[in-house]
C-alpha cells in the first residue's frame, strides 16, 4: 500500500525554496545537495522534485522521463564529485525497517574515502 505524502517534510521545503540547501546540481526533475550531517567525506542527497514518499511510490507513479532523469542525475553527481574511478555507495532507505527519516524519496551518494562493508550484521531472531 502506498503511503500518503505529507508536505510537512524538510525536503519539500528545500524543493520549494522555503529553506536553503547547499546545492550540487539540478536536473529537470531532480535536485542534488549536500547532506547536512555527512556520514562520509562526500555525502550528497539526490531527490526528485515531485512528491514521492519513497522508492515504491516512484517506481509505481513516476513516468519514464522522470526515471531516466533520476539516473542521469546520479551520473552527474558521480561526475561532478569525481567518484567514478574510486567508487561510491548509492542507497535509499525505505519505510520503518529501512530507517527512513525524511518522508520524501532521496538517494544517498557516499564516497571520497573507503566506506567499509555494506552494513553491520544484524541479530536474526
Ligand atoms: P534517511 O535516514 O535516509 O531518511 O536520511 C535523511 C538524511 O537527510 C540524513 O542523512 C540527514 O542528515 C539529511 N538531512 C536532514 N535534513 C537535512 C537538510 N536540511 N539538508 C540536508 N540534509 C538533510
Second-tier CATH architecture of the domain at 10-87 and 105-111: 2-Layer Sandwich
**CA(first)-CA(last) distance:** 26 Å
Please provide the ordered H/E string of secondary-structure elements: HEEEHHEE
Rg is 15 Å
CATH homology superfamily name of the domain at 10-87 and 105-111: HIT-like
What CATH first level of the domain at 10-87 and 105-111 would be assigned?
Alpha Beta
Q: Which structural class do the helices and strands define?
A: alpha+beta
* SS strand fraction: 15-25%
Poorly predicted regions are none
The number of strands is 5
Predict the CATH topology of the domain at 10-87 and 105-111. HIT family, subunit A
Report the principal-axis shape: globular
Give the integer mean of the pLDDT values. Answer: 95
Q: What is the helix tally?
A: 3
Q: Tell me the major beta sheet.
A: 5 strands, antiparallel
Strand order across the largest sheet = 1-2-3-5-4
Helix content estimate:
10-25%
Query: Any ligands, ions or cofactors bound here, and which?
Result: adenosine monophosphate
Amino acid at each position: 500500500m502506498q503511503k500518503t505524502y505529507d508536505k510537512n517534510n524538510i525536503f519539500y521545503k528545500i524543493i520549494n525554496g522555503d529553506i536553503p540547501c547547499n546545492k550540487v546540481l539540478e536536473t529537470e526533475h531532480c535536485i542534488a545537495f549536500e547532506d547536512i550531517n555527512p556520514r562520509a567525506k562526500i555525502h550528497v542527497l539526490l531527490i526528485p522534485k515531485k512528491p514521492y514518499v519513497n522508492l515504491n511510490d516512484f517506481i509505481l507513479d513516476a513516468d519514464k522521463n522522470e526515471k531516466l532523469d533520476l539516473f542521469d542525475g546520479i551520473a552527474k553527481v558521480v561526475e561532478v564529485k569525481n567518484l567514478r574511478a574510486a567508487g561510491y555507495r548509492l542507497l535509499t532507505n525505505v519505510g520503518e525497517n529501512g530507517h527512513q527519516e525524511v518522508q520524501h524519496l532521496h538517494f544517498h551518494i557516499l564516497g571520497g574515502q573507503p566506506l567499509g562493508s555494506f552494513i553491520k550484521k544484524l541479530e536474526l531472531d
